[in-house]
Automatic annotation (TrEMBL):
InterPro entries: BTB/POZ_dom (IPR000210), Ran_GTPase-activating (IPR051553), RCC1/BLIP-II (IPR009091), Reg_chr_condens (IPR000408), SKP1/BTB/POZ_sf (IPR011333). RCC repeats lie at residues 99-152. This is BTB domain-containing protein. Pfam families: BTB, RCC1_2. Residues 493-550 form the BTB domain.
């Protein structure tokens, strides 16, 4: 699996002074990408991310190595997985699955509390929340503040209040006398901003905050509160103010907050709509004092927004990336990810003045399983209206098909679709759903270690479960004998294999099995390759790697496999080419 981080915008000015702002994504070489990135964020001078193995990393852009960090939040990596990371101008906030909150970076203006007024050597927990049994479910950094939403609807804020950017909402705070006293053991007490909050806006450098309460009222506080009176830019932040919008607030999916502007994504049944408002510096909004629709996005099917200081990145359900704002100088355009079609996973984030994109280039093995699921070819069972394959389900879930079918039929079609993506190619779209099914229903605990590639390696070693035989013609068979209508069985040698491996990985066998009885448990191979070469090829179909023994003739193997990839119609992106190049180099 190959991984890359791409960047656009002023990130290059932070790293290389003479390189101008980039409008398209360029390959941005982090010193090292530690594992598969799951979540990512950027501040003014740092990039931070967490990986699938639950490690947190922070990378300074201006050679300030004291701001680098690479490690786990806990001694036991599985103790409490990281769920979210958000950034402000110079600080970051990390949330875990259990609802704990951690801080990292420079806490300018006490954006993470007074005791966090300077940089520290590793992330520290914001103990106020755990001490008071508060579970943090969402957070957003800002220029010099951090707001944190708890699962009970309480919204808290850290930061300097002299600019009126953090203002308690007297209309929504249920308990007027609510006050948690500061305790020197866990630092400064955050401000209770509101009760009954169900959604908050996100933005690294916003000078205002927007949130929505359970009655679907939008509230703004700060230097640019976007009030319904029509004031485009106002420092009157003494009170929280309601926001008037020209759409049904129940359809709001996401809120983004820029420096002096805001953008809102609506979730419609067949499409989406995006509205913006505020003072524009580079065309990132409609430059009005009321929310106006951005018609450019009408047919783009946007699923996620990432707001920076003067720009917003918008991601479509086809994983296309669109930009508006300073990166595009006020123009709307699609950011091209190099070789995007070959990428399986996409993680996007905005820094203060730049955009980030992390891509995972899947192996041909993963691609083959993904294509096999999407094609629905040779499916032999339907679960919740989803066509799938018994053999792959049994192999991945280590269970009999009756149990699997009974369990999965209790879930909706959309839920099963998401789950099957993990079964076939390790894609995780809904962590909670995946954990619920795997752990609670099938007793599979650590799904992060249970990858398709690891499972296939174990499957290759399991000779007893192989349900099919590839009959390979022996080397000593002459051409005359080969052309006879009926060959003697002793002229063929059996190579055990799993039938679904041949179907998933080889176009030749997919075509072949369309014309043979599905109950057939063997097939004759006429490729005229040696048994040694075929055995190596079969192992490659399971593992994606070619390994030779001391008894193998490398020159012959390379020659035969070079031809076999065409004969067996392997994936054009197959890594067999790279594997053969390695062997050729070793021969030289």
């Amino acid at each position: 699996m190959q991984t890359k981080v791409w960047a656009c915008g002023s990130i290059y000015k932070a790293v290389f002074e003479k390189i101008p702002e980039q409008k398209n994504l360029q390959n941005f070489a982090l010193t090292k990408i530690h594992g598969e990135i799951v979540g990512m964020s950027g501040s003014y001078t740092e990039i931070c991310y967490f990986t699938r193995d639950n490690k947190f990393h922070c990378y300074a852009l201006q050679n300030k190595t004291s701001r680098n960090f690479d490690g786990f939040l806990f001694e036991d990596p599985e103790q409490d997985p990281i769920s979210h990371v958000t950034s402000g101008f110079h600080h970051h906030c990390i949330l875990t699955k259990s609802g704990r909150a951690f801080g990292w970076g420079e806490s300018s203006s006490y954006s993470l509390g007074r005791t966090f007024g300077s940089h520290w050597d590793k992330p520290k927990e914001l103990l106020f929340f755990s001490k008071n049994n508060l579970k943090v479910v969402d957070a957003s950094g800002a220029e010099f503040q951090t707001i944190l939403l708890c699962d009970n609807g309480k919204l808290f804020g850290f930061g300097n209040t002299s600019s009126k950017r953090l203002v308690p909402n007297q209309e929504t705070i249920v308990d007027k006398n609510y006050l948690l006293k500061a305790n020197k053991d866990y630092g400064d007490t955050p401000i209770l901003l509101s009760d009954n909050v169900i959604m908050i806006g996100h933005g690294q450098t916003s000078r205002h905050h927007i949130y929505m309460t359970s009655d679907y009222t939008l509230w703004a506080m700060g230097e640019n509160p976007l009030v319904e009176s029509g004031t485009r830019y106002s420092k009157d932040g003494n009170t929280c103010k309601k926001i008037k919008v020209p759409f049904n607030k129940k359809n709001i999916k996401q809120i983004g907050t820029g420096y002096d502007s805001s953008i809102i994504l609506l979730n419609k049944e067949e499409n989406c709509e995006i509205y913006s408002c505020g003072y524009t510096h580079a065309g990132q909004t409609s430059n009005t004092n009321t929310f106006k629709k951005i018609t450019f996005f009408n047919d783009k099917r946007i699923k996620q927004l990432y707001s920076g200081c003067y720009h917003t990145l918008a991601i479509s359900d086809e994983n296309k990336i669109y930009a508006i704002g300073k990166i595009s100088q006020g123009n709307f355009f699609e950011i091209k990810v190099p070789q995007r079609r070959s990428y399986e996973n996409l993680v996007v984030a905005s820094g203060v003045y730049f955009g980030l994109c992390y891509t995972t280039q899947s192996s041909s093995l993963i691609q083959d399983f993904q294509n096999f699921l999407q094609s629905e070819a040779f499916s032999d069972i339907t679960i919740s209206n989803c066509k799938t394959h018994k053999a792959i389900l049994k192999f991945r879930l280590n269970s009999d098909i009756d149990k699997i079918s009974k369990i999965l039929n209790n879930y909706t079609q959309e839920e099963v679709k998401k789950f099957l993506k993990w079964v076939y190619y390790d894609s995780i779209e809904d962590t909670q759903l995946l954990e619920k099914i795997l752990h609670d229903k099938f007793g599979i605990g650590n799904y992060k270690q249970k990858t398709l590639e690891n499972d296939l390696l174990q499957l290759y070693k399991d000779e007893e479960s192989k349900d099919f035989n590839l009959l390979v013609l022996n080397d000593d068979v002459g051409e005359d004998e080969e052309e006879e209508e009926e060959e003697e069985e002793e002229n063929f040698e059996e190579i055990p294999v799993h039938k679904f491996i041949l179907l998933v990985r080889s176009g030749l066998f997919r075509e072949m099995f369309k014309n043979v009885n599905q109950e057939t448990n063997d097939v004759k191979d006429y490729s005229r390759k040696t048994i040694e070469s075929i055995e190596i090829l079969i192992k490659f179909l399971y593992t994606g790697n070619i390994s030779l023994t001391a008894d193998d003739d490398p020159e012959l193997i390379v020659e035969e496999l070079d031809d076999a990839k065409e004969y067996y119609q392997l994936n054009p992106n197959s890594s067999i080419e790279q594997e053969l190049i390695k062997i050729k180099k070793s021969l030289k």
